[in-house]
Each structure stands twice: as C-alpha cells, then as structure tokens.
C-alpha cells in the first residue's frame, strides 16, 4: 500500500461509499475487507471498528490512531401529500450548498433538493437564504402513496458527488471528510509497523463525536493521533488569518480548536517530525472547528491527543476539494510519529 496511485484508488473507493452518521455499515465492511489477516478486529455495539495490530516492538505508550467513517447527509422526516419529502440534515450542512443538489438513497432512488420557485418568493424571501426546513426532496412522485413505494420516514440519503482529479494535483469528491483519514489508517495497517498500535474507525463524529468516546474508553490509549480534514478558506475573498490553512502547504498540525487544546509536546513533535522527514506542514490561524479529539482527550482518565489533518475546501458539501500532495504529507507524518509517540 505504499504506492500513492494505489492509495488514491483506495481513497476514491472510500469516497464513493455511502455512510452517514448511524448508517456506516457499508464503509465498515469495506474497511474490514481490506485489513491484513494478522489484525485483531472488533466492531463494538455503537458501530466503531476497533483494530489492533502487532508491530516489531512493544511500545512504552499505547498509541491509538482514529479516523471517522461517517459523512454528513440527510434523513427523511415526512412525506407530503404531493409526494415531496421533508428532511433534516445529519451533521452540519449549510443550506447554501443544498439547493438544487442531486441526492441518492440506498435503494437507488434519486432525488433533487428543491425550494419554492423564484417568482413565488416574497421580497424578504429573496433577500434571505432559505432554511433547511423550507426545502424538500423531489423524487418525481405524484403523491404520498407513490413516494412511499420508494422511500419511508427515517430513510437516509446522500449527496451524489463524483470523485474526480482536476487542475494541478487537486481531487474532489463527497465524504473526503473523513474517508481520506480512513485511507491513511488502512495504508498504515497494511505496512509493517515498528510498534504495536491501535486503530479505530469511528462512527457518528458528524453529530457529536459519539463513537470516539466509546472507542477511547475501550482502548484506553496513552496517546491518540486523530487523522482528519480541516477547513481551508484559501479562496478569493478570504485574507490573512481568515484563510485558516491552505492547500499545497502540507499537513495541518493543530494546537487548538473549539473542542480541544492539544497536548503541547505532541503539537511540537508533530511539527518537528514533519520538518525532519522533509514534509510540508502548517497550523491553523483561527480557533475553529473540532473533531474526534474533543471526545478522546477527555475519556478514560484523559488522553494526550494530537490531530493531523488534510486542508480541505468546501467541507460538508458534495465536492470537498483537497490537494493530493497534502494527503501524502499527512500519511507520511502519521507514519513517522509512531516510533516517537510509542517511546515518549
């Protein structure tokens, strides 16, 4: 799995899978199918996939890597008399990225997220962004009875976003948050490890890091490395610190976000290790966002935690955008920190 073409083929396969919070089964089974035979694998009652693999040496510290399997999506809440579906977001999704988007259900049913026609909007409505509650999903049904042949209340649907390579080394696709992190962990698991290590593929991160806290109590790590994506705002109209981080500048090593103050020594080790192996690295210039670290660092008596993230534009949309070199930098840094953390 050291070949990067193979790595990005794996990332594409993971991106195309559907698995919003609470519905991660297809992602979990795909990951399970790609694990080496000498792993110890457990799926816990909430759905986390917990993997242990022996390395060349037994570590001083129990190190746990974590990446989440779930993606943002939608859940059907009601079926209207005229066949439209009312829905709620699963995870944080801005209405700005929703209107007019194609969505797909597990059974292959296709829908389009619709809103009131422009010429029916009042002056106030034209000036304001619609709320999710104002939108509906059109599956082409004439009435509720017809719609219920294809969809029931409680069904999930997903952005239908294609994975593509474009420009100078860019990739885009749905659910790269956090299937890129899952690809990093699968790659490490299929290499020879210098130390024993734990790897947890978590569920329900997008609705409050619920799986991570369960996994941390099970594994009880001394040190955790969370492999994630993080918002890059390096686009026109964003200046200075509001760019947060930038594509092409390497792995993001965080010192603080809205849910975690990262262990100071681990933060320095992350930056220094990237420098030592010649990998580009950066940090965030705003205290923003959050990830499974927020749950892990408070679990099981406290866990020293580090986050290594891929800078990503347009998170929680059908077209997350990354630069391939940043993903490779994240993989290389995640690989290189294990011996240091194991013996810290």
Provide a short characterization of the protein structure.
The protein has 344 residues and is an alpha+beta fold.
Walk me through what this model shows.
With 344 residues, this protein is α+β, with helices and mostly antiparallel strands. It has two domains: 4-71 and 174-342, Zn peptidases (Aminopeptidase); 73-159, Peptidase M42, domain 2 (Elongation Factor Tu (Ef-tu), domain 3, Beta Barrel). Helices cover 26% and strands 24% of the residues. It contains nine helices and 17 strands. The strands form three sheets. Strands 1-2-12-3-13-16-14-15 form an eight-stranded mixed β-sheet, sandwiched between helices. Strands 5-4-9-6-7-8 form a six-stranded antiparallel β-sheet, with no helix packed on it. A hairpin with a 5-residue loop joins strand 1 (40-43) and strand 2. The longest helix is centred in the C-terminal third of the chain and has 19 residues, at 324-342. The mean pLDDT is 93.
- By CATH's scheme, which homologous superfamily of the largest domain applies? Zn peptidases
Oligomer: single chain
The share of residues in helices is 25-40%
What class, by secondary structure content? alpha+beta
**Low confidence ranges:** none
Straight-line distance between termini: 27 Å
CATH structural architecture of the largest domain: 3-Layer(aba) Sandwich
- Total E-strand runs: 17
């Amino acid at each position: 799995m050291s070949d990067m073409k193979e790595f990005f083929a794996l990332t594409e396969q993971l991106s195309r899978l559907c698995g919003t919070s609470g519905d991660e089964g297809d992602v979990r089974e795909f990951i399970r199918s790609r694990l080496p035979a000498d792993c110890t694998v457990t799926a816990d009652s909430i759905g986390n996939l917990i993997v242990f693999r022996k390395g060349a040496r037994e570590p001083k510290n129990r190190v746990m890597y974590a990446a989440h399997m779930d993606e943002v999506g939608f859940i059907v809440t009601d079926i209207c008399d005229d066949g439209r579906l009312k829905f709620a977001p699963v995870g944080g999704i801005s209405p700005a990225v929703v209107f007019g988007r194609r969505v797909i259900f597990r059974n292959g049913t296709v829908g389009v997220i619709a809103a009131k026609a422009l010429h029916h909007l009042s002056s106030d409505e034209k000036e304001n962004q619609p709320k999710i509650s104002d939108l509906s999903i059109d599956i082409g049904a004439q009435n509720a009875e017809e719609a219920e042949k294809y969809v029931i209340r409680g069904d999930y649907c997903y952005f239908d976003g294609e994975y593509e390579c474009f420009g100078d080394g860019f990739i885009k696709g749905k659910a790269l948050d956090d299937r890129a992190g899952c690809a990093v962990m699968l790659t490490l698991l299929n290499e020879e490890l210098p130390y024993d290590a734990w790897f947890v593929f978590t569920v329900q991160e997008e609705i409050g890091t619920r799986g991570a806290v369960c996994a941390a109590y099970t594994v009880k790590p001394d040190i955790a490395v969370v492999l994630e994506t993080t918002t890059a705002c390096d686009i026109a109209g964003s200046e200075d610190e509001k760019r947060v981080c930038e594509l092409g500048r390497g792995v993001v090593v965080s010192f603080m976000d809205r849910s975690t103050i990262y262990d100071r020594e681990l933060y320095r080790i992350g930056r220094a290790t990237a420098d030592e192996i010649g990998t580009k690295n950066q940090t965030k210039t705003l205290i923003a966002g959050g990830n499974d670290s927020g749950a892990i660092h408070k679990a099981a008596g406290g866990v020293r935690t580090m986050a290594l993230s891929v800078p990503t534009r347009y998170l929680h949309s059908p077209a997350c955008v990354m630069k391939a070199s940043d993903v490779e930098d994240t993989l290389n840094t995640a690989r290189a920190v294990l011996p240091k953390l194991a013996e810290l």
